[in-house]
């Protein structure tokens, strides 16, 4: 594979008179070793279909194309398309689509361009400003995704893998871990991008679960409790929950917390997924 070296990247940007758009979170990878490691983390087989979000100049796309059966690359910035047509011209298993990933029905796109596949993978060096909504878009919509490999800001990687009680632990941690098992694969220095981002990054792997790791009777109630607990982090659980449902008094919540075996003076941010599930199920039963 002819890599997109820093010189080639500058040459492409110059020849196409391309202006980097901060608004689209454009930081292009120029380090082959990191690209190789991202592709390895995706554990691709030659029969796999992979959807790449934001191919940029195509450096990651080229390597994905060599490992997967089919690559579908969604790029929002139409001014990158002529560059991608050049860098991906000889890669005939790549389909390039101008699209906003946040508004894309991934199952439909894969069905259209890859035919019927049971499952597919997602690989992305994500623009930081859409990381959380995009991860939730992948997970909440029951797309047939098996594995997601994403580069995110280091701080987001810490939030995704945070433990209860830590300052990074929050509603995003719970939501993502509800749908997927999460692990940080490796850290990525700022120096491997053009232009250099302000902060360090990390590659995170999400293996989508067949079902949640805890039994939850009503998903909406579960997430309503999680949201309330983290919206008012400084409050005790009892005070935070009192805001969830006006039909329930403090005494009602006290009773439910007692039934769940959870000390009402704890803060919501100390509850793990299992404790949130027990409490939410009692609330659901009661309603
Ligand atoms: N994958 C390339 C790389 O690693 O060099 C580019 C990564 S750059 C951080 C993010 C890319 O995502 C840019 O090409 C940007 O235009 C694209 N992008 C931003 N928002 C997007 C969206 N909502 N849907 C699809 N692509 C998007």
Q: Your description of this structure?
A:
By secondary structure, this protein is an alpha/beta fold. The chain has 2 domains: 6-208, Rossmann fold; 219-286, Helicase, Ruva Protein, domain 3, CATH 1.10.8. It is 40% helix and 18% strand. Strands 4-3-2-5-6-9-7 form a 7-stranded mixed sheet, sandwiched between helices. A two-stranded antiparallel ribbon has the order 1-8. Helix 4 links the parallel strand 3 (70-75) and strand 4 (94-98). The protein is elongated and about 70 Å long. Bound molecules: S-adenosylmethionine. S-adenosylmethionine binds at residues 24-29, 53-57, 59-60, 74-77, 80, 100-102, 125, 127, 130. S-adenosylmethionine (SAM) binds next to strand 1, helix 3 and strand 3.
Secondary-structure blueprint:
Layout: H1 6-15, E1 28-29, H2 32-41, E2 49-53, H3 59-67, E3 70-75, H4 81-87, E4 94-98, H5 106-114, E5 120-125, H6 131-140, E6 145-153, H7 154-160, H8 171-179, E7 180-188, E8 193-194, E9 201-208, H9 219-231, H10 237-241, H11 250-260, H12 273-286
Parallel strand pairs: 2-3, 2-5, 3-4, 5-6
Antiparallel strand pairs: 1-8, 6-9, 7-9
Helix pairs in contact: 2-3, 6-8, 9-12, 11-12
Report a brief summary of the structure:
This protein has twelve helices and nine strands. The chain is an alpha/beta fold. It is elongated.
């Amino acid at each position: 594979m002819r890599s997109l070296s820093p010189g080639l990247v500058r040459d492409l940007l110059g020849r196409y008179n391309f202006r980097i758009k901060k608004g689209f979170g454009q930081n292009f990878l120029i380090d082959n070793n990191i690209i190789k490691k991202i592709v390895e983390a995706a554990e691709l087989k030659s029969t796999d279909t992979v959807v790449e979000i934001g191919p940029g100049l195509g450096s990651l796309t080229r390597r994905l194309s060599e490992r997967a059966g089919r690559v579908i690359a969604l790029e929002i910035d139409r001014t990158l398309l002529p560059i991608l047509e050049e860098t991906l011209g000889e890669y005939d298993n790549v389909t390039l689509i101008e699209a906003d990933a946040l508004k894309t029905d991934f199952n439909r796109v894969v069905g259209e361009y890859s035919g019927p596949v049971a499952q597919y993978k997602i690989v992305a060096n994500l623009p930081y400003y859409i990381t959380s909504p995009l991860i939730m878009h992948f997970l909440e919509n029951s797309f047939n995704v098996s594995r997601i490999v994403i580069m995110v800001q280091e701080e987001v990687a810490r939030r995704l893998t945070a433990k209860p009680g830590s300052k990074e632990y929050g509603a995003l941690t719970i939501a993502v871990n509800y749908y997927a098992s999460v692990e940080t694969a490796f850290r990525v220095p700022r120096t491997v991008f053009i232009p250099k981002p302000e902060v360090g990054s990390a590659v995170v792997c999400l293996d989508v679960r067949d079902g949640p790791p805890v039994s939850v009777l009503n998903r909406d109630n579960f997430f309503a409790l999680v949201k309330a607990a983290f919206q008012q982090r400084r409050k005790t659980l009892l005070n935070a929950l009192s805001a969830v449902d006006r039909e329930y008094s403090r005494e009602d919540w006290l009773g439910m917390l007692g039934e769940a075996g959870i000390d009402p003076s704890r803060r919501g941010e100390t509850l793990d997924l299992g404790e949130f599930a027990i409490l939410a199920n009692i609330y659901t039963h009661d309603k």
